[in-house]
Amino acid sequence: MKIGIVGFSKPHFNKEQARIFLEEAINNFVKESNENTIEIVSGLTNIGIPKISYESAVQNNWLTVGISAKMALQSGCGIFPCDKEIIVGMNFGDESNFFINYIDVLIRVGGGKQSHKEVGLFKDKIKMQNNNISQYLIEKEVEWHGE
After folding, report:
1. What is the C-alpha separation between 22 and 26, in angstroms, rounded?
2. Would you say 9 and 43 are in contact if contact means Cβ atoms under 8 Å apart?
3. All domains of the chain in start order, with CATH
4. DSSP 3-state helix, strand, coil percentages of the chain (rounded to 5)?
5. What is the pTM of this model?
6. Are 82 and 54 in contact (CB under 8 A)?
7. pLDDT tens sequence across 109-134
């Protein structure tokens, strides 16, 4: 099962609240899955929601997959040492369609324009498969402390 995770990619949010929600959401999908291989798929960076999701994956011996644009390699926020890195396009957002096609389910914790755009793309994908979105998508807002 490939669990996609999007959300804040800056550090100014309630990390403890986000971690608790994220771990519950991931475990919910894992419990419902009959698959032996779990991949936690996020934006490759070592900050914000991607970092929290990857740390959880490492603790549970799940695979980590980072999908991002080349820009992430130069962003200054660092790259999480994922088991698998996939670079698509030059600018943030260029990888969105590839990311959505790669994942089976999606979790969003906060986030800005790109996170919400990817949720919209994911909803379209699930709708085309005639599936119930509530079985594939979990979303949560968390307290933002930034600008």
Report:
1. 6
2. yes
3. 2-140 (3.40.50.450)
4. 40, 20, 35
5. 0.93
6. yes
7. 998 899 999 999 999 999 988 888 98
